[in-house]
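Good morning,

Attaching, inline, the backbone tokens for the sequence recovery test we're adding to the shared suite. The designed sequence is right after.
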């Protein structure tokens, strides 16, 4: 909690302390940049090999082989989605939203990558097209496709309201993973992780620094496209908040389905190879 008025008097050099220039924590100039031209060229003559429709307020899984593409598409109305990714061959490797945020910023778009957790830490997927890239940042500091929110969950909902609500994205993703892997909800719950909030428009308030959401600008036909760097198992929840213009974890918000389409290129992008796990050698202490 931040007090409306500070309890301590600012020191005489407070303006000088505040004026110190920031330093980027993780400069990414040394990161190998994705060859977007090669990725996009690989789409020529591709074949759609599968699609999954995620019903409103529900979750579904999908699989994408390394070297294939997938799109998350708005099909009927403004709807946000919560995305989890796992290594299809080892679910212990999963999307690491915190480090992705540290490397690429609060919101993702073309050329940004979704990185996996430690000790694997490698690109899982690369964003190759974003029909909402025109949005940028609005006057409130809001933008789309964030990696700052976690996922709506029944535990926080109960904490704040005292209600038991089960269609939260956390539960949707857990149920979807349990169905796909034939494991119990209890066994799968620890594998569900912080998400990429696809199409969601969010930011931090300028006065209190609180996480906010606003109505998504997405419309039917908009999509976010990815290239799978490794074999992926994905789970997508069509958030019960719908366009998230008023609330989430709701049975009253207008909600719509989302569609995932998977595409197989005729050949892999020129020069591409699936990345190895992180090369750090732990020699111990």
């Amino acid at each position: 909690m931040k007090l409306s008025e500070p309890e301590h008097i600012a020191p005489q050099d407070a303006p000088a302390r505040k004026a110190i220039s920031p330093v980027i924590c993780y400069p990414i100039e040394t990161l190998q940049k994705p060859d977007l031209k090669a990725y996009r060229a690989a789409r020529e003559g591709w074949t759609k090999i599968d699609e999954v429709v995620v019903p409103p307020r529900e979750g579904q899984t999908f699989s994408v082989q390394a070297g294939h593409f997938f799109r998350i598409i708005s099909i009927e109305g403004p709807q946000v989605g919560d995305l989890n990714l796992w290594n299809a061959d080892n679910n212990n490797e999963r999307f690491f939203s915190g480090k992705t945020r540290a490397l690429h910023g609060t919101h993702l778009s073309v050329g940004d990558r979704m990185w996996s957790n430690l000790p694997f830490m490698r690109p899982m997927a690369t964003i190759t097209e974003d029909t909402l890239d025109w949005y940028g940042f609005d006057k409130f500091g809001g933008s789309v496709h964030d990696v700052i929110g976690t996922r709506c969950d029944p535990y926080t909902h109960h904490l704040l309201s005292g209600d038991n609500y089960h269609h939260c994205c956390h539960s949707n993703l857990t149920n979807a993973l349990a169905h796909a892997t034939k494991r119990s909800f209890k066994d799968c719950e620890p594998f569900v992780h912080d998400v990429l909030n696809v199409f969601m428009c969010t930011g931090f308030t300028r006065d209190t620094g609180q996480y906010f959401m606003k109505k998504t600008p997405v419309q039917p036909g908009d999509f976010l496209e990815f290239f799978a760097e490794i074999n992926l198992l994905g789970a997508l929840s069509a958030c019960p908040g719908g366009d998230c213009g008023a609330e989430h974890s709701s049975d009253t918000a207008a909600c719509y389905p989302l569609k995932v389409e998977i595409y197989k290129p005729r050949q892999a992008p020129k020069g591409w190879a699936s990345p190895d796990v992180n090369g750090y050698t732990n020699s111990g202490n």
